[in-house]
Amino acid sequence: MSTLSAPAPGPAPADRKTFIRTEFDLVDAVLRPWSRADADSETLLDALVAAAADPAIALWNPIATADRDAARAWVEARDGGWERGTVAAFAVRDTADDAVLGGVSLRWVDREDGLAMAAYWLLPAARGRGLVTRAVAAITDWGFDTADARRIEIAHAVGNPASCRVADRCGYLPEGTLRDSHRFGDGEYHDEHLHARLANDPRSEGV
Questions:
Q1: Cβ distance 121 to 63 under 8 Å?
Q2: CA angle (142, 56, 24) in 5-degree steps
Q3: d(CA 150, CA 129)
Q4: What is the dihedral of CA 70, 117, 30, 42, to 10 degrees?
């Protein structure tokens, strides 16, 4: 089970529905908020360029990091989401060498109503060891426990069964198919499966 590192002491936000920077220890990886300091690392920027070029990421979860300048702007935008408390965007970093393995995030869809959405991607070398499942489970419980999320959704293309497995393993119940719901990296609209967890749903076990 993922563990949450102790946050730095500080005043509680006036609005509980605010994402506060936190790190998660997943033993073989750490979830660390993207920050503007990351934009100074050419190694990190190159990892984001490689992620944008990966066929699976480019199709199902495209990120606008085609070159270093674009990657730098992308990182700075993620940092801005943290500053506003509206998007909690984490880099998945390898514990051994701090290499970027992927990214996971929560964003408010309707902040006042407590409705959020989770998203995730991994570089090819990090796939197949349950890492994204553990990462999504960690940020989901955190969103319920610390930001007063009422409902968190995952929507993924019907043609992306790997994302479906992650949602299932993290306790997100299937709620149906959204027809021509989202335009993906191929420029086409795809049907999506909608999954969701509520704050009072049972926590997933054995993740």
A1: yes
A2: 20
A3: 29
A4: 0
For residue 43, with 0-12 CB atoms within 10 Å meaning exposed, 13-18 middle and 19 or more buried, which class applies?
A: exposed
Considering only CA atoms, give the Rg of the chain. Answer: 16
- Could you tell me the pTM of the whole model? 0.90
What are the DSSP calls for 35-53, one per residue?
-GGGGG-HHHHHHHHHHHH
pLDDT on residue 10? 44
CB contact at 8 A, 133 and 207: yes
Tokens of 158: 């019907």
Q: Give, as one character, the DSSP assignment of residue 205.
A: -
According to DSSP, residue 6 is labeled: P
Helix, coil or strand: residue 183: strand
Residues 6+ apart with CB under 8 A from 76: 36, 39
Gap between the Cα atoms of 54 and 77, Å rounded: 21
For 99, the enclosing helix (H) or strand (E) is none
CB 127 within 8 A of CB 163: no
What confidence tens digit (pLDDT) does each residue in 148-190 have?
999 999 999 999 999 999 999 999 999 999 999 999 999 999 9
